[in-house]
UniProtKB/TrEMBL annotation:
Residues 81-209 form the MotA/TolQ/ExbB proton channel domain. PANTHER family: PROTEIN TOLQ, TOL-PAL SYSTEM PROTEIN TOLQ. It is a multi-pass membrane protein. Its main location: membrane. Belongs to the ExbB/TolQ family. This is Tol-Pal system protein TolQ. InterPro entries: ExbB/TolQ_transport, MotA_ExbB_proton_chnl, Tol-Pal_TolQ.
């Protein structure tokens, strides 16, 4: 076997020690799972943003609130987060308005209903972000563990050699460094995706909160 063959990626992985191969396999698995959630969260956040834009356009076009409510209730599983917040708030508002004449209690009840739905929507958007953050922070250290172990094995193998050469040391160190490379390959996309998704979710949640305040003011005006 030539040196170039020994230093090919596939050869380095196949010739690595069992522990280093386990580390590489773990990192590869973490990378695959993180990419799965990266694509899933990307589609979910894009859908949430588009549905929010559509509902805001319909809501502020001056349509009847009862019509919007009936439409949201009829297609609940296809609506977006802001539309579900509107539905829960307006349902509580109409229910309390028929039972109480205390305007403050009616508005407070509608706000609580919207706040509960808001929390569920944001929690759903933030689901599995912690996994991406964990992969981004832990993967380099897992890769470093494999690298340290591989380098230790490489130097132990030289203990019975009277004179070590670069050709003897290079394959062992190279296979150890592959673990670090795989760790970085798993960590970098996860960190970038986490930061991007956290920013997008924060912007969507701000829009939800702004809508709740504005809608509460509209409901308050309807009680006058």
């Amino acid at each position: 076997m030539t040196v170039s063959q020994d230093l090919s990626i596939i050869s380095l992985i196949s010739q690595a020690s069992v522990l280093v191969q386990l580390v590489m396999g773990l990192l590869a698995g973490l990378s695959l799972v993180s990419w799965y959630w990266i694509f899933r969260k990307s589609f979910q956040i894009r859908s949430a943003r588009n549905k929010t834009n559509t509902f805001e356009r319909d809501f502020w076009s001056g349509g009847d609130l009862n019509s919007l409510f009936q439409s949201a209730a009829a297609a609940r599983h296809e609506t977006g987060g802001m539309e579900r917040i509107f539905e829960s708030g307006y349902r509580e508002f109409t229910k309390l308005r028929g039972k109480s004449h205390d305007h403050a209690a009616i508005i407070d009840g509608a706000r609580r209903a919207m706040r509960a739905t808001y929390q569920r929507e944001v929690d759903d958007l933030e689901a599995h972000l912690a996994f991406l953050a964990s992969v981004g922070s832990v993967s380099p250290y897992i890769g470093l563990l494999g690298t340290v172990w591989g380098i230790m094995n490489a130097f132990r193998g030289l203990s019975n050699v009277s004179s070590a050469t670069l050709a003897q040391v290079a394959p062992g160190i190279a296979e150890a460094l592959v673990a670090t490379a795989i760790g970085l390959f798993a960590a970098i996309p996860a960190v970038v995706a986490y930061n991007r998704f956290a920013h997008d979710i924060d912007r969507i949640s701000i829009r939800f909160e702004s809508f709740m305040e504005e809608f509460s003011n509209i409901l308050q005006r309807q009680l006058r």
